[in-house]
Each structure stands twice: as structure tokens, then as C-alpha cells.
Fold these 2 entries.
Entry 1:
Amino acid sequence: MIGTILAVGFGGFLGAIARMITSSFFSKIIPHNYPYGTLFVNIIGSFLIGLFFSYANSKGVHILTKSLVSTGFLGAFTTFSTFSYENLLFLQSGNYFQFLLNIFLNVALCLLAVWLGFLILK
């Protein structure tokens, strides 16, 4: 268990730094009022988790490596990558109701939660 915790922590450390660098880079090269840095981080993270799990599922990857890369690095880089992967699994299994429900609940409830959090400390 301690190995998994350390792997996730180290991956998270690297992922958070990579997020800051990547987001800043895209925000500087595409200056605009839209948060392009976040958009590109989410796209890149979703692409990377697709690559990683495709490889991990076909070749077999040690659980510590999975924890370091998926939960740690990509989790800190963008939680949107996990959201995207879970929705892909719903689509691949033909579970369209769960797919739509997951998208709706995540977007609607997270927007509601951030709004409530903002209101509480306003």
C-alpha cells in the first residue's frame, strides 16, 4: 500500500508541474479570453490516458506503474482524462444511458458545486 501511495504522490508531483508548464505555454502562444491552456491540457491528458490504457491493457503493466501514470501523473495533469476514459468505456460497452448520465451529472453537479462553493465564501 505504501508503494502505491508513493507512486501516486510522485506521479502527482510530476503531473502538477507538467500541467502548469503546458497550460502556461498554450496560454502564452494563444492569448485570448478563452482558457486555451486548460482546454489543451484536457485534450492532451485524454489522449495520453487513451494511449496508456491501450498499451497497459494489451501488454500488461505493473500496478505501481498504472498508479504512477494514471492516478498520479494524469490525475494531477488533468482529471478530465479519467472522465474521458470512463465515458469511452461506456460507449464501447454500448451503455449509452450511462454515458449520457455520466456526462450530464459530472458537468451539471460540478458546476453547481463550484457555484455553491463560490457563494458560501463570497
Note: The radius of gyration is 16 Å.
Entry 2:
Amino acid sequence: MTHDDEAAAVRRIWSQLGLPGIIDVHTHFMPKSVLDKVWNYFDSAGPMVGRSWPITYRTDEAHRLDTLRAFGVRRFTSLVYPHKPQMAEWLNQWAAEFARQAPDCLATATFYPEPGAADYVDAAIRAGARVFKAHIQVGDYDPNDPLLDEVWGAIEDSGIPVVIHCGSGPQPGRFTGPDPIRRLLRRHPRLALIIAHMGMPEYGDFLDICLNSSAVHLDTTMAFTAFVDELMPFPAGERPRLRAAAERIVFGSDFPNIPYGYRDALTALAAVPGIDDAWLAGVLHDNAARLFAIALPSG
């Protein structure tokens, strides 16, 4: 399928739902040196990946931006995340400049449990960050680390959502799983967490967390696709609860780091038994538009 054919197929899916486009809360734009290392890690099927993982959209930054826009993605993120100290602040500076150059990107920031984290998180909030990214698996840290107490407090007070990879897929980490998140939310119950990958593979536990908290959302990143269903399928018994959580499920793709086409993520969602067009329209656009206060296009 050519680029134009793929773009037309993607646009057909959302336009048939009467939507103005897609809001994708889980996309990655990073400094080239960092993204190259991420791609090399996927190429080597490193231990946090654990399987062959070809990168479908391995193109330069400008082409990747054009691709998302051709798909009709109205807003997206530049999810950056550190794996060591003294990295997050630099990533925040890069991401802020990226968002200035690409205003359809929701300005993104991140953090790491280290001295000074509260200061650069406060600076990011004041500079206009719209979303934060936390990666418990890659960062290998406890979200309840005392070095993050002020960070979580500031983010909670700001109401800015946090896309957080905290489930144990594709490989478990020392601090992944639902229990650290339950402890975090007991201390910060107003945190607007967006649980990446539907909490894969602890889908049921994270659905519990979502349904028991008015501020927690789930993102669909890679869930329901054939690639994930091979090893970590979404349990059939949990499908009815997808409707109960309908207004707090948002679309994520993991673009560009996905081992299949963007359209496949959409068709996989549309094929989930028991969901309807209203559910799909909410997930692909309306729920995130409400969460991030994104207005409909004028005219």
C-alpha cells in the first residue's frame, strides 16, 4: 500500500464516524540521537522488547510529521522519557522547542526521580506543558520514590495529564504493575493519569483503577492488535467493561515505533466485539478533545 493509499484508508475510517480527525495521545518525537538509540534497541529485540519488532515508520522527522497530518491526526504528542538522571530537563527543553515548531503537537514534558526534578517540572508547567510522560519500565524507578513527591503534587495541582507506561508488558520491570499505581493514587487521587497500552497485560486491574478514579484514563496503544494478541490478548471477559469506561479511553498508536501500519491500529479497535460507532468516535477523538480542551475546527 502506498503512502497516499494508506492515508486515504485512515481518513476514511474517522470521516465515516463524522469526526474532524484523530487525536493520538501516544506518539514519539525525540532528539535524533535518542530516537536512533531507541530504534537500535528495538532492532536488537532487547530484553525490554523480547521479540522481533520492525519499525514501520522509520523516516526522518519532517516525513513523520507529514505522515501523521496526512492521516488526519489533529493533535499528537512528543512522548520523551529519560532512562537515567540529568536527562529529563534536556529532553523537556527539546520537546518545548519541538512543540513551538509543530503547534499541532501537545507540548510534552517528562521527569525522573532526582534532585531538582520539582524545579524543572515546575518550569515545564509554567512554560505551557500540556502532557507529561512517565515510563516506569524504561526508567526503572518506583513512581512512589520520595524524590517525586513534589513532582506529583505539582502535576496533580496543574491537572495536566500524564501518559504513564506502568503495565508489565511487553516485559515486566521491577516497579511495573498495578500496585505501585494504586499507592500513588492513594496519595494523589486527583492525578490525571493516562495508563498506556490499557495497562497491558494487567488489563483488568487497570480497568479497575480507571473505573474507581474519576481522573484516570486508559490509552489503547497497541491493544487489540494481532501483534499484541499473539502474547498478551485483551481478555474476552473484560470487554463489557470497555463500555463502562467508554468516556475515559483515548486513542494511542506508538507511532512511529509500531511493527504494523497505522490503519491496523484503527481497524483492530473497530473490530472489538461489543463496541459501537459512538464508542469508537469517543476513543479516536472526542474523549481526548474533552481531556485536553481541544476545540472543534471552525468553519
Note: The radius of gyration is 18 Å.
